[in-house]
Amino acid sequence: MAVHEFEQIFPLGDKNDAFAQYFIGQSYLAPLASGSVPVSNVSFEPGCRNNWHIHHGADGGGDQILLCTAGSGWYQADGEEPVSMEPGTVIRVPAGTKHWHGAKADAWFSHLALITPGEGVSNEWLEPVTDEVYGKLPRNGANT
């Protein structure tokens, strides 16, 4: 499916070149709201995923919220089974959780992403999700 055939309710945005080093494949970023709780629409081409990463925070801040709005993707926390994300899926990633998220191999994927505000909120990028690990996941539309 070409980018112009991927239908979603939020803008696709520009190629996410500023963070390309932390992704395998092409992602897109569309900032939707700024302020104390910025919200962005992040879209992933089929097979695209971000590296393992951790959102740090204190005093209740630093949680990440992912809301799938289109397509089909994966979320996985370290040491846990992957979770299939379809439109309407909402994932809360507690601060300090090592995780990754991205598209299924045969599907585009978009989610809204936001971080809860708080003291010391930061992001730590880690190693890529290897082709070996990613290749073991079910293809588009299959749940684990």
Describe the 3D structure:
The protein is mainly beta and 144 residues long. A hairpin with a 5-residue loop joins strand 3 and strand 4 (39-44). The longest helix has 5 residues, at 131-135. The chain has a domain at 39-120: Jelly Rolls, CATH 2.60.120.10. The chain is globular, with a radius of gyration of 14 Å. The mean pLDDT is 92. The protein has a six-stranded antiparallel sheet with strand order 1-3-4-12-7-10, with no helix packed on it. Helices cover 3% and strands 44% of the residues.
CATH class of the domain at 39-120: Mainly Beta
Briefly note the CATH topology name of the domain at 39-120. Jelly Rolls
Structural class: mainly beta
Strand and helix order: EEEEEEEEEEEEEH
CATH superfamily of the domain at 39-120: Jelly Rolls
Percent helix, as a range, is under 10%
Radius of gyration: 14 Å
Keywords, separated by commas or semicolons:
single chain, about 140 residues, Jelly Rolls, 1 helix
